[in-house]
Amino acid sequence: MFQSIKKWILGLTPPQALALSYLGLSLIGTLLLKLPGASHQPVSWMQALFTAVSASTVTGLVVVDTGTYFTLFGHWILLILMQCGGLGLMTFGIIVIHLTRGQLALKHRAALRETFNHTGQGDVRRIMLWAIGFTAIMELLGTVFLALQWVPEMGWGKGLFYSFFHTLAAFNNAGFALAADSLTTYADNPLVNSVISLLFISGGIGFVVIADIIDNKRFRHFALHTKLMLVGTLVINLVAMTVILVLEYGNPATLAALPDWGAKLWTSWFQAVTPRSAGFNTLDTGALFPSTAFFIMGLMFIGGGSGSTAGGIKLSTFIVVLLATWAFLRGQERPVVFGRGIQLDIIRKSLAIIVISLLCVSTGIFLLTVTEGGNFLDVAFEAVSAAGTVGLSRGITADLSVAGQIIIIVLMLIGRVGPLTIAFTLAHTRGESIQYPAGQMNIG
Amino acid sequence: MFQSIKKWILGLTPPQALALSYLGLSLIGTLLLKLPGASHQPVSWMQALFTAVSASTVTGLVVVDTGTYFTLFGHWILLILMQCGGLGLMTFGIIVIHLTRGQLALKHRAALRETFNHTGQGDVRRIMLWAIGFTAIMELLGTVFLALQWVPEMGWGKGLFYSFFHTLAAFNNAGFALAADSLTTYADNPLVNSVISLLFISGGIGFVVIADIIDNKRFRHFALHTKLMLVGTLVINLVAMTVILVLEYGNPATLAALPDWGAKLWTSWFQAVTPRSAGFNTLDTGALFPSTAFFIMGLMFIGGGSGSTAGGIKLSTFIVVLLATWAFLRGQERPVVFGRGIQLDIIRKSLAIIVISLLCVSTGIFLLTVTEGGNFLDVAFEAVSAAGTVGLSRGITADLSVAGQIIIIVLMLIGRVGPLTIAFTLAHTRGESIQYPAGQMNIG
Ligand SMILES: [K+]
Ligand SMILES: [K+]
């Protein structure tokens, strides 16, 4: 019995294993959150399932207030779900196999290489251990720095846990906060703003990028993927910050209500970087102008880095598609950037990711408009947020019908496992031809 | 002076000539509509410009009521603008060159071949003359059949003109109607429904498809492009009709208000086929459920056939992208359909069309949300309708701000000239490397 289950598990293709492990984690989380000690007041099965999926897929959409509904035990359950879902269940699965069997099968090495977008020939085990080490260090540092704010404010016990919880949620781009208005209280606090945004940007840019930076130190020595991610992240964040600052400057419900330029700049920065795909907020997302909300929907669709805790189609996919389009217009055979060409197969994969993601998101929006009444913009925003595992909401999550909650749950799962991975599984290909949304760039 | 203008015109690349000719037609139309005899009451420059661009780009969005504002002379101006804009200004330009110089330069033959999506080696002149002949026959037949309804109703003079006007607007997918509620009065009229929808489907499927059908008669002898367009049109129309019927069945403002199944079926059919991109309506578009409106936005984005009077990214582009994605998922080198492979270059071009169209439409929606207050769905619907040269509206056109009207004008022009054509012009490529949105399929 145990042997046959083990055999069945080892026989799964990587995308099947990935999809099943997120489903499994969500179901275990649901059971744990239903335990009497997990919540102050009873939560329904639907509320528990929604919360567990949201935490496992590191989204952060909530139907009940995280801080007041769940106990300390409940919060620890969420922390474990977020950490497992963020760093990648597959990593853990492979570590377990690694530890129990002493060595990594070649096909698992290949899968792991793709999970971490590591297209070079380096040692996969090193990258994997490295990712875990980096996570531990960042989460330790994040907790310490945030404690400087929250221990004086709340005392040692609550302050430290508060710091740890938000550090972990930030690094894993999970968006869960213990206050009902997320981090709005700290909208103009430089420490909270800088530590939290540094955590989710470093967690969301991709481990291979961080490893490349630490290994090679100089920009010109970096891999193409690393260069594009660094420049792309800088450009998109600064453009987004400027756009949001300009659009919201006259909004009496957001920037115009803030007393000074420091607060206006910090909130513009935070609202610009959180959609890709941290999910915290320091302004009322529902009070943003429709233009800003639509712009943020674009950022949520793009998302973060491949092989990271972030979601979306990934910034690298977006850049490849823009470069491929530009190259086509210029009559060039293939896009060339930073002196390197981008392989045709990467372009075909990017096209597939864009098409499948658009179909998923459009279908999600369409189904939600059928099941939910209310404002179309709010509904569309919710669907894009779920599919990008972002967690921002214009305030309709708690009011969703059961059908609407199920749609959001499915979108979160698809968003975290990756629409392309799901599509591969549905197209019945063999394990060896599977390629993840990660591994966008041809290096060398 | 005349010689140098002629030299300058002959030196333009085809996309430059196309863009300039639509601009020119619109400006001439504006001046004509400002003539005192064109309207019963004075129209502003902005109203004249908007109407002229809408007619020239065969869109059909209106800021003033076509039937009551303009005189018979004004209606004739609109007819000429629609016919020029629909059949393709380029065709007329090339005919003029052909007639004045006795022969067609090779590069103009190539341009014409692409305009009509005629990738084979057949005689271009034949296709061109053929398109004009087909147009004349269809418009004659359409007028005769519609006259059966409208001459008894309105008398010979008004009835004949009414029939001619709507025939021409339908075949050119121009969407202008003489009643303020479009064809809502005839929502359950089998004659009007069938003649009008047959006209805009045959005008919008692409002349090369019609020519292929008449030349080769049997399905298995048709070119790949023809097969895909025929099957694709049938499938998308039937699916859309079913979806709209199901969604709107319970809507008291649309289908539920209709007395019998005949009316429900005709209106479902009409609302399913008009978004790609005829622009007439027989139900109040603003009263459709948000889910239906969002679904119709998808249809408007897809649009009709290449080298036709329709707009959008074109059904063939949509099919190619779906096939390429499916082939990628199946691990196939390139998509194969009806026993023929689709060339890589076609896939790259489809990717470029999708990306540029999405960027145009998104930018349009974004800018409109900045300039216009009001419902986000209505604003987004308006932008997609303009960019797809569809002409359906949820009722906000007349209330648009001046900035909003300018955005819609620019979207209509981009939509008719083709986002890819504009992008080519902006990317400063030479004439010989230009490929139009037409010419999607590799035949043979
Ligand atoms: K998130
Ligand atoms: K139209």
From TrEMBL, chains A, B:
<feature type="transmembrane region" description="Helical">
    <location>
        <begin position="350"/>
        <end position="370"/>
    </location>
</feature>
<feature type="transmembrane region" description="Helical">
    <location>
        <begin position="45"/>
        <end position="64"/>
    </location>
</feature>
<dbReference type="InterPro" id="IPR004772">
    <property type="entry name" value="TrkH"/>
</dbReference>
<feature type="transmembrane region" description="Helical">
    <location>
        <begin position="285"/>
        <end position="304"/>
    </location>
</feature>
<feature type="transmembrane region" description="Helical">
    <location>
        <begin position="160"/>
        <end position="179"/>
    </location>
</feature>
<dbReference type="GO" id="GO:0005886">
    <property type="term" value="C:plasma membrane"/>
</dbReference>
<feature type="transmembrane region" description="Helical">
    <location>
        <begin position="127"/>
        <end position="148"/>
    </location>
</feature>
<protein>
    <submittedName>
        <fullName>Ktr system potassium transporter B</fullName>
    </submittedName>
</protein>
<dbReference type="GO" id="GO:0015379">
    <property type="term" value="F:potassium:chloride symporter activity"/>
</dbReference>
<keyword id="KW-0633">Potassium transport</keyword>
<keyword id="KW-0406">Ion transport</keyword>
<dbReference type="Pfam" id="PF02386">
    <property type="entry name" value="TrkH"/>
</dbReference>
<keyword id="KW-1133">Transmembrane helix</keyword>
<keyword id="KW-0472">Membrane</keyword>
<dbReference type="InterPro" id="IPR003445">
    <property type="entry name" value="Cat_transpt"/>
</dbReference>
<keyword id="KW-0630">Potassium</keyword>
<keyword id="KW-0813">Transport</keyword>
<feature type="transmembrane region" description="Helical">
    <location>
        <begin position="12"/>
        <end position="33"/>
    </location>
</feature>
<feature type="transmembrane region" description="Helical">
    <location>
        <begin position="226"/>
        <end position="247"/>
    </location>
</feature>
<feature type="transmembrane region" description="Helical">
    <location>
        <begin position="310"/>
        <end position="329"/>
    </location>
</feature>
<keyword id="KW-0812">Transmembrane</keyword>
<feature type="transmembrane region" description="Helical">
    <location>
        <begin position="76"/>
        <end position="99"/>
    </location>
</feature>
<feature type="transmembrane region" description="Helical">
    <location>
        <begin position="191"/>
        <end position="214"/>
    </location>
</feature>
<keyword id="KW-1003">Cell membrane</keyword>
<feature type="transmembrane region" description="Helical">
    <location>
        <begin position="402"/>
        <end position="427"/>
    </location>
</feature>
